[in-house]
């Protein structure tokens, strides 16, 4: 049964002349599945899977209208007529499964990374988006005319490619917003100064796009730039009202933020620290101001029931779920079929999606390793293999993923976990305040394992002799890793990460001063440091590298730094500890300058690189016979949940068929 809130969410809705089968859409999000700035079969399969999953509308990632916006070859562009057949394959794949698809067309402006193409970025003014970024070229009149013509040409090509509509991107700090915003537009010609002048380029683009095609045209905006002197919701309401007066907008897609090296950028991909639907009030304001204009809402809508709240409250007409659709492309279909409990939860961790985009890698997902390689996984699974007896040792993410995948492949699977609970290190990490959503990963993995029929033994420690005596064909070793702890003789007590998490649960955890040593630059040290500071502790975060939290994506790090500032966390890059005596530590570094003394230290938290817990593997590997061994997750090499779930799923799914070219294709696609 579908409850009434979901019934409204899943009811049809009209956009211009089009009827969508429900009010759920996949908003534009970069996949890096392009090649030579054109969509690939991989991208078509990715969108087809979400269409098959029941979504009403898919909006593509940004399709650059001009080479000065391309940045790199894996982005999408519409520069010549030669791109039309590739886009046609995408629209055909989506239409086959009953969804509609709109093309989002845009010019990135000043943040178009020209390192790969050796091109200068274009913008309204010569103002870089972040300290150290390239200063863009301030566009001249011929440049402006070129961009307007490029938008029109892209619109015509997308019409020929079979798209159902267009979305002009005037938000997220891209080129059109750079002209709209007084924060970035410092011009003194007809395209700067007054609001009418700053709107001129957007008007010209909309005029050109409407003249070029009869497709419905929506507008994506940032309701708030979160920048001093920038655009705010009231200003954007006025801009949309003026644009509507002259242009038949099919809808307004209300997002927020600017592409700017500050907290503003962090809001664009709000991670788990922001909480549920933190920016829904923006869409609500536009719904009140424009009751006859469809309003699309987006950002940190983590599930269909949460998204349905906005529909029921009249705050939006459609709701966008990007990361949840990366995590589970079938979340709508599962809800329609009464299987919502089977939905795989998005963690809002930003680890497999935007962090990989930032590294110019194709996206994947911690909870869904099949992202972008849907065809290869499906093809490999269709090849039958004889059933095998499989033992999985370890009930963390890697072990749970392996056990479920192996059971679904038809094998007899037993999972043994030495602890009394499943979850491994993720269970520990989810106990840190602010990181609780990580617990959804092990909750979902455990539910899948039980549903698949995996035999689970808790409190069961496995030995090499027991494995050999068990008659198993395969053993998956997923025993994880253990935290390291370096001694500071003569200094304050040193805690490893697990001990620090236990400390956070103690009533007096907020007293005193703590030095947190961060060697890895991951969330491990930063989350503990933040949690201690929230309890009232004086916290010093020390890193031997020049960069703080280097392995956390910029989109999350910018928000983290703001919280550190608010909480008074003192950061010491390029420093290491040296004991002075008792409770005093000196922080020393390779650069000139005096050591920094920290007195009254209650304890040191050592977030050193963990060590693989691979003893079982070593014993099994030393034997001349026995079952086939598969080493996965941190037991293989201490990394993150992203690699752990992928390796576990891969090992379980392809037991007995590792020589398959299809399996090799899955591996190479990463």
UniProtKB/TrEMBL annotation:
Q: Where is the NADH:flavin oxidoreductase/NADH oxidase N-terminal domain?
A: 9-341
The answer on whether this UniProt entry bears the keyword Iron-sulfur reads yes
Task: Name the GO terms of the biological process aspect.
Answer: fatty acid beta-oxidation, unsaturated, even number, reductase/isomerase pathway
Q: Which co-factors does it depend on? A: [4Fe-4S] cluster; FMN
Q: Which InterPro entries does the UniProt record give? A: Aldolase_TIM, FAD/NAD-bd_sf, FAD/NAD-binding_dom, NADH:flavin_oxidoreductase, OxRdtase_FMN_N
Q: Which UniProt keywords apply?
A: Flavoprotein, FMN, Iron, Iron-sulfur, Metal-binding, Oxidoreductase
Q: What molecular functions are annotated in GO for this chain?
A: 2,4-dienoyl-CoA reductase (NADPH) activity; FMN binding; iron-sulfur cluster binding; metal ion binding
Q: Which superkingdom? A: Bacteria
- List residues of the FAD/NAD(P)-binding domain: 389-583
Recorded hits in PANTHER family, A to Z, give: 2,4-DIENOYL-COA REDUCTASE, 2,4-DIENOYL-COA REDUCTASE [(2E)-ENOYL-COA-PRODUCING]
Family note: In the N-terminal section; belongs to the NADH:flavin oxidoreductase/NADH oxidase family.
For this entry, the protein name equals NADH:flavin oxidoreductase
Q: What is the lineage of its organism?
A: Bacteria, Bacillati, Actinomycetota, Actinomycetes, Micromonosporales
């Amino acid at each position: 049964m579908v409850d009434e809130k979901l019934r409204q969410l899943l009811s049809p809705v009209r956009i211009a002349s089009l009827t969508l089968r429900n009010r759920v859409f996949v908003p534009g999000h970069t996949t890096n599945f392009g090649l030579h700035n054109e969509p690939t079969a991989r991208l078509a399969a990715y969108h087809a899977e979400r269409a098959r999953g029941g979504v009403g509308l898919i909006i593509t990632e940004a399709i650059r209208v001009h080479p000065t916006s391309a940045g790199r070859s894996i982005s999408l562009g519409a520069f010549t007529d030669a791109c039309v057949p590739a886009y046609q394959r995408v629209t055909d794949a989506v239409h086959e499964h009953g969804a509609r698809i709109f093309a989002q067309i845009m010019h990135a402006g000043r943040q178009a990374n020209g390192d790969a193409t050796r091109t200068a970025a274009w913008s309204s003014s010569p103002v870089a988006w972040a300290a150290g970024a390239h200063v863009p070229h301030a566009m001249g009149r011929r440049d402006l005319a070129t961009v307007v013509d490029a938008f029109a040409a892209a619109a015509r090509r997308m019409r020929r490619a079979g798209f159902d509509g267009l979305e002009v991107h005037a938000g997220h700090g891209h080129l059109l917003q750079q002209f709209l915003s007084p924060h970035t537009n410092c011009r003194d010609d007809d395209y700067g100064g007054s609001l009418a002048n700053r709107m001129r380029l957007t008007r010209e683009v909309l005029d050109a796009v409407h003249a070029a095609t009869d497709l419905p045209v929506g507008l994506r905006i940032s309701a708030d730039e979160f920048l001093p002197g920038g655009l705010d919701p009231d200003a954007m309401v006025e801009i949309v009202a003026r644009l509507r007066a002259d242009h038949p907008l099919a809808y307004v897609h209300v997002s927020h933020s600017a592409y700017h090296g500050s907290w503003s950028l962090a809001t664009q991909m709000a991670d788990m620290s922001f909480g549920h639907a933190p920016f829904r009030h923006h869409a609500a304001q536009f719904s009140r101001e424009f009751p006859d204009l469809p309003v699309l809402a987006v950002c940190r809508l983590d599930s269909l029931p949460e998204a349905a709240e906005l529909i029921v409250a009249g705050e939006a007409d459609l709701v966008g779920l990007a990361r949840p659709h990366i995590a589970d492309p079938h979340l709508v279909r599962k809800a329609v079929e009464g299987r919502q409990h089977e939905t795989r939860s998005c963690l809002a961790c930003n680890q497999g999606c935007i962090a990989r985009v930032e590294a110019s890698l194709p996206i994947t997902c911690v909870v869904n390793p099949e992202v972008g390689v849907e065809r290869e996984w499906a093809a490999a699974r269709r090849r039958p293999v004889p059933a095998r007896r499989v033992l999985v040792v370890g009930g963390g993410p890697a072990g749970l993923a392996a056990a479920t995948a192996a059971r679904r492949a038809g094998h007899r699977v037993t999972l043994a976990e030495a602890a009394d609970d499943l979850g491994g290190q993720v269970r520990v990490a989810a106990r840190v305040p602010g990181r609780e959503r990580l617990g959804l990963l092990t909750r979902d993995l455990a539910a899948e394992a039980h549903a698949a029929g995996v035999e689970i033994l808790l409190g069961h420690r496995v030995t090499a002799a027991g494995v050999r005596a068990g008659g198993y064909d395969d053993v998956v070793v997923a025993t994880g890793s253990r935290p390291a702890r370096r001694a500071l003789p003569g200094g304050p007590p040193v805690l490893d990460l697990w001990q620090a998490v236990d400390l956070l649960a103690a009533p007096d955890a907020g007293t005193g001063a703590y030095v947190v040593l961060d060697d890895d630059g991951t969330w491990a040290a930063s989350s503990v440091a933040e949690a201690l500071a929230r309890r009232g502790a004086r916290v010093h975060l020390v890193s031997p590298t020049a960069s703080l939290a280097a392995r956390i994506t910029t989109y999350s790090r910018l928000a983290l730094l703001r919280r550190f500032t608010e909480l008074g966390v003192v950061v010491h890059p390029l420093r290491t500890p040296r004991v002075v005596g008792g409770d005093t530590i000196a922080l020393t570094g390779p650069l000139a300058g005096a050591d920094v003394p920290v007195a009254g230290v209650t304890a040191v938290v050592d977030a050193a690189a963990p060590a693989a817990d691979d003893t079982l593997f070593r014993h099994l590997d030393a034997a001349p016979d026995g079952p086939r061994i598969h080493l996965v997750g941190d037991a293989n090499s201490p990394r993150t949940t992203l690699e752990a779930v992928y390796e576990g799923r891969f090992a379980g799914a392809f037991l007995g068929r590792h020589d398959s070219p299809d399996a090799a294709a899955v591996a190479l696609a990463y």
